[in-house]
Amino acid sequence: MNYDLGISNVIGNLIQHEKDRLNEIELKLKIINAYNNDIKKNLELISLLMTIADRCLIIGQVSRALKYTAMLKNRVDIFIAEVNNYNDSLSKRFLK
Q: I want to staple 22 with a disulfide (CB 3.0 to 4.6 A). Which of 8, 55, 81, 82 is the partner?
């Protein structure tokens, strides 16, 4: 019986740690999102969104994970468009 309580405590502590870490990452996401017009920042946003979605799944918040996965897809689409624009501008500049 004590063994079960110990495991429950460990699991509870791990879940709380994940929730705390998730809150920290979401705050960082808000800060970075304020100045995200740069390819490098988009990569960081993509990484954070993936991490948040993973942590949401770890703590059993599937609907929240789906929300961040949708945001991730949108950010990846934006990133691809920015990379294509960058590539086009390089081509125009150097292949005149």
A: 55
Q: Go through 31-56 and write b for each residue having 16 or more CB atoms within 10 A of its CB, e for each that does not.
A: eeeeebeeeeebeebbebbebbbebb
How many domains in the chain? 1
Distance between CA 91 and CA 34 in Å, rounded?
30
**Residue that the structure tokens 């929730």 belong to:** 19
Q: How many CB atoms lie within 10 A of CB 22?
A: 20
pLDDT tens digit sequence for 26-80? 888 887 776 656 777 888 889 999 999 999 999 999 999 999 999 999 999 988 9
What is this structure's pTM?
A: 0.67
Could you tell me the residue range of the domain that residue 53 belongs to?
2-94
Q: How far apart are CA 55 and CA 13, in angstroms?
A: 14
